[in-house]
Amino acid sequence: MKIHHIKGYIQQIYLVEYPDKLLLLDGASRADVGTILRFITDDLQRQVSDLKVIVVTHMHPDHAGAAHRLKAITGAKIVSAAKERDWYSGIDGFLMHVTDLVLAWYMAKRLGQPRKNLWYNKALNADYQLIDGDTVPLFDDWQILDTPGHTDRDISVYNPNESIVYVADLMVQVKQHLIAPFPIFHPNQYRSSVEKVYNLNAEQILLAHRGPVVFDERAKEHILDTAPMRPVTHWRVTKIKLKGVFRSVLTAR
User: What sign does the CA torsion over 243, 246, 250, 251 have?
Assistant: First the structure.
């Protein structure tokens, strides 16, 4: 087994190579479809049909955006968390989907990336909906870990034999410190997820927006000390800003 680290549009892409098959540890963004396919054919000198499974850790644009397109081209199966309801369901879900796309474009601009089409289906058609402890179909050396908090359905992908865990957006690194991501919808679940990953004692922790990091007790405590105690979401931030503007108008009067 070999894990290839590929620079994506706004995140790292992790492609796991075996002699007879390939596993994509997350669904990447729509802008990454060509990058992934070219890596398989040009760098690995393999058929795109060797891609057998695509894990979608959660529904944000840089983690689910390429999944459907890659499935259509390669025939790969999509794996996600087992949830009855779509993350972007209803009117609120549509607005949140658009907001997340805007945030993804904003991140791309900050990274100096050209503007690309990131639009993707807000409803995921997964072939397998897995729960905590389930092994990934065709890749039984990898298992699914429920690690919610960032959203209600975040999963990590763990290989106990190799002591590697890909945690997606469970944590991000800013100024040499690991911190909680934005948004955090479920603070208590988030803290439990951080503890859960820490207790694995994995030798390699792979992040979506960084790469491998050291996740020792000091790093864990920093995350827990600085993580929000209340939900920090798009709508809460917007409401706080609107209240500030309203107060400023009243004060001016």
Answer: positive
At 52, list the tokens: 């057998």
Helix (H, G, I), strand (E, B) or coil at 59: coil
Question: Which residue, 134, 28, 22, is CA-closest to 77?
Answer: 22
Identify each DSSP E strand in the chain by its residue range.
2-7, 12-17, 22-24, 51-55, 77-81, 128-130, 135-136, 139-146, 155-159, 164-168, 172-174, 177-179, 204-207, 212-213
**Nearest-angstrom CA–CA distance, 97 and 103:** 10
Quick one: pLDDT band at residue 243, thresholds 50, 70, 90? very low
**Residue indicated by tokens 């995140």:** 11
For residue 233, give both structure tokens.
């979401």
pLDDT-based confidence at 236, cuts 50/70/90?
A: low
Interval 197-234: pLDDT, tens: 999 999 999 999 999 999 999 999 999 999 999 999 87
74-107 in b/e burial notation, b at 16+ Cβ within 10 A? bebbbbbbeeeeebbeeeebeebbeebbebbbeb
Distance of CA 22 to the CA centre of its chain: 19
Listed residue (106, 91, 99) closest to 235, CA to CA: 99
Q: How confident is the model at residue 28 (pLDDT cuts 50, 70, 90)?
A: very high
Integer Cα distance of 78 and 156 in angstroms: 15
Neighbours of 213 (CB within 10 A): 16
- Level-2 CATH architecture, domain 2-226: 4-Layer Sandwich (3.60)
Could you tell me the residue ranges of all domains in the chain? 2-226
What are the pLDDT digits (tens) for 169-186?
999 999 889 999 999 999
